[in-house]
Amino acid sequence: MVELPTAAVDRIIRRSGGQRVSEKAAEKLAELLEEKGLEIAKEAVKLTDHAGRKTVRDTDIILANKR
């Protein structure tokens, strides 16, 4: 189940140059963004654990995204 609001995803697509966006297109992009976000977050948590911290920092997210 996708938790990202489709209205926000619709705005992202429109900011990228899309003039019209179907509901299914916004839903599909939300699904893909959530999957990628979960992958990055899981990697960031591993980095946080390895550093002996409980707080995930922005630097953890940046490093996780590069991996």
How do you describe this structure in short?
This protein is an all-alpha fold and 67 residues long. It has helices at 6-15, 23-50, 58-66.
Description:
The chain is mainly alpha-helical and 67 residues long. It has one domain (6-66): Histone, subunit A. It has 3 helices and no strands. It has helices at 6-15, 23-50, 58-66. The longest helix is centred in the middle third of the chain and has 28 residues, at 23-50. The chain is elongated. It starts with 5 loop residues before the first helix and ends with a helix. The model has no long low-confidence stretch (mean pLDDT 96). Belongs to the archaeal histone HMF family. This is Histone.
Name some characteristics of this structure.
67 residues, mainly alpha, Histone, subunit A, 70% helix, elongated
